[in-house]
Amino acid sequence: MSRYWSAVTHGLTPYAPGEQPGLDNLIKLNTNENPYGPSPMAIKAICAAAADSLRLYPDPDAKALKAALAARHATSQAHIFVGNGSDEVLAHAFLGLLKHDLPLWMPDITYSFYPVYCGLYGIDFRRIPLADGFALRAEDYLPRDGERAGGIVFPNPNAPTGRLLPRAEVERIAAANPDAVVLIDEAYIDFADDDASAIALIDRHPNLLVVQTFSKSRALAGLRVGFAIGHPELIAGLDRIKNSFNSYPLGRLALVGAIAAVQDEVWFQESRRKIIVTRAMLTARLRELGFIVPPSSANFVFARHPAHDAGEIAAALRQRAIIVRHFKTPGIEQYLRITVGTDEQSATLIAALREILQTARPGTENE
Ligand code: PMP
Q1: 361 pLDDT exceeds 80?
Q2: Pocket of ligand 1 (CB under 6 A)
Q3: pLDDT score for 166
Q4: 160 cis-preceded (ω within 30 degrees of 0)
């Protein structure tokens, strides 16, 4: 606390990102990064752009990146917004499209940044409970008893659960709420089935905004690039916010790196496939050890052991130089969110867990 802070600053509850320890030789499975390096074409493009031209500001409209994304997603540049990581795109969308008199609806268990944006921008929101097994049900997002949402936001697959809502259900929500923006945060969609993305729906639903990131499936979390695809009216709203905040959210290196990454379809499909295969193997091994693991469509799994405390397991893993994410949030405090790493990292994790479960005294049943 400081007397120099504004009242807004005093009132904030900031988001706590997963730890980025400065230690080597850690198996880092806590922030859903990609265990494989980015496309070599992206690295080459970034190196080539580290040149005299860095004197100059980048293109404020990121036209070349929008063109590459438009080609990749069979849409036009007018349907695309880009930002400094999808967190920035989300922040602009919260302020520019989701802040209304009626409350914003979101799941009760979801990406913990959403309530933080609501706090920052003074957005009234309502948490909608998930169903059994953390399933998100479309019927819970339909107007009812005279109540409507001012906006709707959820990740698909949801975070930190990994559960996917089928595209037809996403469409039901968008169709039933034509006066509200429905924002689908597809940070992890590339690890789901091919036809899962709601991008295919944007031409039919002008209220649908789909946000994606280069941080996970493109392995470029360090470059900070995210984007939104939706009706040009939504994109124009985001542009107004962006141009009232920072004209140049993406630097020259980020722009060229992202363009090269979008164009390297071979790298993309291969790395995606490897993670999906490892996820299936990791899920099976965890279940063999007695963990309860809901099916995941993301690059992480969400796991709970009925007889062992999640906090204690996380601490014991840490002693073995393996870090996973443990949220102390009520309702999920007995779960661990474990990023899908390489096959080798998963094998090391499973061996460590086997040892921990054998040596630890089982706790009280937390069924
Ligand atoms: N949405 C969700 C659901 C996430 O888990 C994350 C990663 N923390 C993001 C958005 C933000 O990712 P980035 O800013 O790296 O694009």
Answers
A1: no
A2: 85-87, 111, 155, 159, 185, 187, 213, 215, 221, 226
A3: 98
A4: yes
